Amino acid sequence: MESCYPVRSFAAASVAAAGSAVAELASRISGLPVHAEALPDLSRAWFGGSFRPAGWEVPPPWDPLSRDYPCTDGWVRLHTNAPHHRRAALAVLGLPADAGPETAAVAVSAWKGGELEEAVVEAGGCAARLRTVEQWQAHPQGQAVRAEPLIGWTRRAAQLPVETTGSPERPLDGVRVLDLTRVIAGPVATRFLAGFGARVLRVDPPGWQEPALEAEMTIGKSCTRLDLRTPGGAAKVRELISAADLVVHGYRPGALTGLGLDEHRLQQLRPGVVTVAVNAWGWTGPWRGRRGFDSLVQTASGIADAGMAWSAAGAPRPLPVQALDHATGYLAAAAAVRAWSRRLDGEVYAARLSLARTAAELQRAAEARRPVPPPWDSPKEPSAPALPRTAEQTYWGPGERLAPPVVFSSVGPVPVMKWELPAAPLGSAPAAW
Predict the structure, then answer these.
(1) pLDDT class for 256, splitting at 50, 70, 90?
(2) What angle do CA 327, 151, 352 make, to 5 degrees?
(3) CA neighbor of 141 nearest in space, from 279, 295, 321, 306
(4) Tens of pLDDT along 134-182?
């Protein structure tokens, strides 16, 4: 599937940002120049999925109700992958729990897109009305996001420098990363960190499931479960934070405060801890606390509408991959590595990113390049060569993983992207370092 957006080069640029951060850290450790190069074809392929099962199948990624629906004044997208989001959407539409997409389409057709979007959000669900780029740029949230930096940095109180046990080959060896993220940007970031030696412990709430993503995203990580709303779970996560070097989280503004884990409290629990935060809609503006996902940001920001117009399609046409998630993940990884490098000197930084701000960056990249003709006018390109893969054994069975999307060069030893732990189910490890 082609796109009017430069997905391949955007993927390579985000991977290059993360790789360059690793190269700089490795160079610091070895004392020799280290260079990173993102491989465009592999970078683009990793955005689509790095793991291919052999002899078994990964569950489908989408709930049947997660799709675009015509409404009275255009289109609206429902995101119902999480059970509670599905219940919210069905409740607003007045439909039973077993309703299918055809029944939902009839119900949605009676709504205006903006009214349904707001009603579903108010009910605790996730939805987005299809907007044009111009409509999004005029929207208060679109304006707020475009004014934000791609990576927002905050400097915290300085601490004593820390020693690293990393090597040029494994520059993040010994770094403890507490992963409080879920689909997809945060897990991409922590997977990358684990690939260079970080010890990643992912924490999910009881009952949370991501069956379509576990083999893809849990490689290199220990995965446990805690209910942070209970006294026992809250005490345990504070214990984990007190021994962490980095905390990567995907909570909306104010959500961690509600759990008693705002930035001030994190610094009390672990003075000097590096924090990297990712959310959907940005850190300012009226939607900063709204739940969201890549597909919804593409819908609201004009990306899916631009794709529909470019291809003369009869329905919204999103990017061929969830590029906002993946690009934000690699940018978050870059931020984490750079902040850790500063931490070695006693400087303490927090970084925050959002899918909506990454979307604005992609749109700017599209505006800056020469217009690309739609698919039917494009010359036929030769088939891309098969990309290198290596055999891998997961909890569920064997498969193949794409070769790393970034390579390094130096006169001395270079970083090696590999993982020490096989992919395994969520909640399969104890809540301990």
Answers:
(1) confident
(2) 95
(3) 279
(4) 999 999 999 999 999 999 999 999 999 999 999 999 999 999 999 999 9
pLDDT score recorded for residue 381? 42
Give the up-direction half-sphere exposure of residue 227: CA atoms within 13 A in the CB hemisphere: 6
Q: How much is the mean pLDDT over the chain? A: 95
Model confidence pLDDT, tens digit, residues 372-392: 666 544 444 445 568 999 999
Q: Which amino acid is at 133?
A: V
Q: Which long-range contacts (CB under 8 A, 24 or more apart) does 14-17 make?
A: 14/43, 14/326, 14/327, 14/328, 14/330, 14/331, 15/43, 15/46, 15/330, 15/405, 15/406, 16/406, 17/330, 17/331, 17/334
SS3 of 217-268: the string is: HCCCEEEEECCCCCHHHHHHHHHHHCCCCEEEECCCCCHHHHCCCCHHHHHH
Instruction: Write the pLDDT tens digit of every residue in 326-365.
Output: 999 999 999 999 999 999 999 999 999 999 999 999 999 9
- DSSP letters for 379-424: PPPPPPPPPPEEEEE-SS-EEEEEPPSEEEE-SS-------SS---
Residues 6+ apart with CB under 8 A from 102: none
Spell 261-299 as b/e; 16+ CB within 10 A means b. Answer: bebeebbebbebbbbbbbbbbbbbbebbebbbbbbbbbb
What does the buried/exposed string (b/e) look like for 309-324 if buried means 16 or more CB atoms within 10 Å of the residue's CB?
ebbeeeebbbbbbbbb
CA distances from 365 to 4, 98, 239, 358, 360 (A): 11, 42, 43, 11, 9
